[in-house]
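User: I'll paste a sequence; please echo it back and then give the predicted structure.

Assistant: Echoing your sequence first, then the prediction.
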Amino acid sequence: MDTVNLKKILTFAGIALLLFFLIAEPQQAAQLVTNILNSLRTAAEALITFVRQLF
């Protein structure tokens, strides 16, 4: 029972921290999202290249 309450508390705390970051530093938050998306794109391109090399 305590772990469920702890999960809820940590989830709400994480969401609150995220919202605070978005409100306090919107440009940095946007840059962070851009960096994450670029990293995911690079990883996907590397995976595609790997699969193409197999065939």
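The first helix runs from residue 2 to 24. The chain has a mean pLDDT of 92.
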